[in-house]
C-alpha cells in the first residue's frame, strides 16, 4: 500500500512541472496575441532526444494539447489556459492528499509495529515466567 502511494506521488511530482511548463507557454502565446504582434515566433521543436527542427509558429489563436492515450485536441488559447489551470490545481490537490495519506499510513505502520513489539514482549515475559496456561489461551 505504501509503495502504491509512493508511486502515485512520484507520478504527480513528474506531471506537475510539465503542466506548469505548458501553462506558461499558453500564457506566453496569449500575451503575444494581445500585443497584436503578427510576426511569427521562430523556435526549435524537439523531434527526438538529439534532433531538433527549426519552426515558425504563426499566431492562430489556437493550440493543440496532447491529452495522452493517443489523443490530441485543438483548443483556443483561453480554453487551453482554463483547462491547464484546472489540471494544475487538481494535480496539486492530489499531491497534497497523497502526502497526507502517506504520512497517515506511516504513522499507522509505526503504531502497528509498536503494538506487535509490545505483544511479543508480553508473550515472552509470560512464557519465561512459566505461566503456560495464560500464554496457551492468549488471555
Automatic annotation (TrEMBL):
**Biological process per Gene Ontology, one example term:** microtubule-based process
Keyword Glycosyltransferase attributed: no
Q: Which Pfam families match?
A: Prefoldin
Query: Coiled coil located at which positions?
Result: 81-115
Alphabetic keyword roster? Chaperone, Coiled coil
The answer to whether the entry has keyword tRNA processing is: no
- One annotated Gene Ontology cellular component of this protein: prefoldin complex
Q: Which GO terms describe its molecular function?
A: tubulin binding
Protein family according to the UniProt entry: Belongs to the prefoldin subunit alpha family.
This chain's protein is named Prefoldin subunit-domain-containing protein
Species annotation: Jimgerdemannia flammicorona
Amino acid at each position: 500500500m505504501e509503495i502504491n502511494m509512493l508511486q502515485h506521488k512520484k507520478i504527480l511530482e513528474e506531471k506537475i512541472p510539465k503542466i506548469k511548463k505548458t501553462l506558461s507557454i499558453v500564457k506566453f502565446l496569449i500575451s503575444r496575441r494581445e500585443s497584436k504582434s503578427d510576426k511569427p515566433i521562430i523556435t526549435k521543436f524537439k523531434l527526438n532526444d538529439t534532433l531538433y527542427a527549426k519552426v515558425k509558429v504563426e499566431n492562430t489563436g489556437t493550440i493543440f494539447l496532447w491529452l495522452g492515450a493517443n489523443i490530441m485536441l485543438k483548443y483556443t488559447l483561453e480554453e487551453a489556459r482554463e483547462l491547464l489551470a484546472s489540471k494544475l490545481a487538481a494535480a496539486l490537490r492530489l499531491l497534497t492528499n497523497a502526502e497526507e495519506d502517506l504520512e497517515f499510513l506511516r504513522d499507522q505502520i509505526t503504531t502497528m509495529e509498536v503494538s506487535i513489539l509490545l505483544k511479543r514482549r508480553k508473550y515472552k515475559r509470560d512464557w519465561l515466567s512459566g505461566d503456560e496456561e495464560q500464554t496457551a489461551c492468549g488471555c
